[in-house]
Design goal:
Layout lengths: L2 H32 L5 H4 L9 E7 L9 E5 L2 E5 L11 H11 L7 E2 L3 E2 L6 E8 L5 E7 L4
Length: 146
Amino acid sequence: MTELFRSNVLAKEERKIQFIANIKGLIELLKKALETDFNLNKLSTHPFGKSGVLRFYLCNNEGDQISSNFNFADAQWFEDATQLGFNWAWRPYFYQLLALESAKDSYRIVTSERYRDFNTDILCKTLSLRLDDERILLIDIAAEWI
């Protein structure tokens, strides 16, 4: 292995680790904001622009979307209620998250496979995690970032 190859691969992995740490921090921020009534404008003050986050939304335990989509674009959050009531339970990551509960690991982040976002045509992944006994947080993120 050449030194140049090694340093390039190492730098890439270090960027990936830093990105994951940043996105985990933003997820914690969202999680805390969703524990109370949250302010979309206040969320806009955090560095979501460099995170690849496209949107977030909430589902219940049956996979029904119980919140609007909160889309992020141009350094602002926008609410879109068109997906309200849509059922996401058919997605594999949804059942992976529920299966973690039987393993007593229900507050771990589950990442979907890459897919093409229907609304934006961007290659995405969905990150999902349990917020509480009733709600699941889903975050769509551009796959180029992870």
